[in-house]
Please model this.
Amino acid sequence: MRNVLKLMGLVVSLSFILLSPTISKALSVLPESPEEGARKVSSTLLQGKQNVLIVLVDSPKKPHSAGNDKKSYYEEALVSGLNNYYKEVSYGKFGVSVRITDWVNVSDTISDKHERARKALDLAWGTTIPVLWPNDYDKDGNGEYDFILIFDTVAPTTSEVTSMELEGVTPKPIPGTGKKLNWYAYMRPSRELALVAHEFGHLLGLLDMYLGIPGTIGNIGRWGLMSAVIDWGMPYSHLCAYSKVKLGWATPIELDQSGDRIIKAAELKDYGSVYRISTSITFDHPLETA
Ligand SMILES: [Zn+2]
Model:
């Protein structure tokens, strides 16, 4: 596929040599700092290997299916899967050590998600995994858990990443740990790597890139992990170039001079290139594909 951009008659052409159509489809104008509603994550949490805790939660009325729904069922899909995914999209700058707890049972009388999440974490800490160290899950030392995903059988079908503070609830320390739960993912138990990687992306500070949904920062169609139009169950996309730049995993090359550019696909292991084109440039043709 070859795309040509013409800039104000300066005869600037860009030759996009792509192994996949991802880049051309993902070309869109995104705001410079779309931070509203996004988690603000310390840069120390965006580099190196970080610890992620997934807590398996059920309730007396909606128990997990005993026998074949053990934590190993989720470990097989997610432990190396999530790490490999993020290692690849960060070009080796970031990875995750995922730990999944045994099932904890939270009473049906506790229906509020925040209360269920707190109770689940309390139970996981106190009973199922005696060797969890709170400081291992607060690497930036801000007193809050870094990366917690609550997999609850009674969660709504729509996954969400939520912040107690943003919802007007005061984060409180989980008993015995001294650490507060504030940001976390709340979702049905899932082995779907694309879904879990997407929700984890929110914990890293990324927003959705859906079309027409308030609070989202643009629409990138189906060509990025933070889009809604991921084909669950199908091979999933990389994070888009914009997300990689925001997380500090790619450095954009500013396009301010005429000339030919070969843009390697951002998915390439030898570090695909990311170009940033100033929105002050007026195009004769926004994008021409040949
Ligand atoms: Zn999302």
Observations:
- Helices lie at 22-26, 71-89, 113-128, 193-203, 241-246.
